[in-house]
Amino acid sequence: MKSYTLQMASSYVLFPPPVPALNLISGRGNTNLQECNNVDVEIPFLFFPIFFVATWVSVLGVLSRVGGWSRLSETYRCDDPRVTSWKGLRWAKIGPVSYKQCLSIAVAPEGLYLKTGLPFLFRAFHPPLRIPWSAIRSAEEKKVWWMNVLEIKFHDPTIRIVIEKRALSDAERFLSDKLKLLPGKLSADDLKP
Questions:
Q1: Where are the chain's structural domains?
Q2: Which residue from 38, 93, 150, 176 has the highest number of Cβ atoms inside 10 Å of its Cβ?
Q3: pLDDT tens, 35-92?
Q4: Are 177 and 189 in contact (CB under 8 A)?
C-alpha cells in the first residue's frame, strides 16, 4: 500500500492532471465556464506583481538606509531641483552601496545635486539631494580600477561618497580649497595665469 501511495504521489508531481482552464484556452476539453472558474491556478499569478513591487520597494528602502542616502536626505533634501545641466547614468558609491549607471549628477553654484534615475524604478526612499559646497569637508582624487574618482567627505553626517571624476569636472572651481588631486595632476588653480 505504501509503495502504491508513493508511486501515485510521484506520478502526480511528474504528470499533474490537466487543468480545465488550460484545456479551454488550447481549444481542447470542456468549455463549461463554471468548471474553469473553480480552478485556483490563477491566484499565485495575481499576487506576483504585488509581491514583486513590495520586494523592490523594500530593497530600495534597505539600500537607502545602509548606504546613507536617507541620512543625507534628512539634511540635504531638495524637493525642487531646477537644474538644467544634469549628467545622467553616472556611477557613484554612497557608503557601501554602489549606484551603477542609475544616478544623475548636476553641479551648480548652490551645490552638488544628486538624484536617482527613473522615478518609478529607483526614486522610492531616494529623494533628490542638494548638497551645499560648504557642507563638503574634503574631496580627494583616487584611482578605482581604471576610473579616476573623487571621494567626497562631509562635515555632518559622516558619510563618504565616491563619484567618477568626469561627472564632477565642473565642480573643481567650487572645490578648489578642499580638492586633493593625485600627484602629477594639475588643479584648476594651476591653470590660472
A1: 68-180
A2: 150
A3: 555 555 566 677 888 889 899 999 999 999 999 999 999 999 988 777 878 888 889 9
A4: no
